[in-house]
Amino acid sequence: MAVYLIGEVTITDESWIPNYATNVHDIAHKHGGKYLSRSSNIKTMEGEECKANMIALVEFPTMEALEGFLNDPEYAEFRQSRIKGSISNLHVIDDSDAAGSIPYLKKG
Q1: What is the pTM of this model?
Q2: What's the number of domains the chain is made of?
Q3: Could you identify which of 43, 55, 59, 100 might form a hypothetical disulfide with 107, taking C-beta atoms 3.0 to 4.6 angstroms apart as the criterion?
Q4: 60 Cβ partners below 8 Å, 6+ apart?
Q5: Closest by alpha carbon to 52, among 5, 86, 92, 81?
Q6: Could you read off the pLDDT of 82-102 as tens digits, one per residue?
């Protein structure tokens, strides 16, 4: 079952970004990850204003693949630099339908 990593990032120190942006895509790809978006064009349509100034959406084929990416020793230094230079909240959702009424989604 596909899963989607949603990274809400509030950048506090930009020094880590060039190295992270250059290298992490390939590490995610090694685990089957595919960036669907990595954007600073964030507009809140309803509810509280989003505090993040960047959101990344990355698809992985399985939860195990996502966990493999997050725990990959090659990713560790980039993860630490992101943590030090930002306030990051990572969320994961799967491709199911919690209400069970959308025919092309798995029932959640």
Answers
A1: 0.90
A2: 1
A3: 100
A4: 2, 3, 4, 5, 28, 31, 32, 33, 34, 66, 69
A5: 86
A6: 999 999 999 999 988 888 788
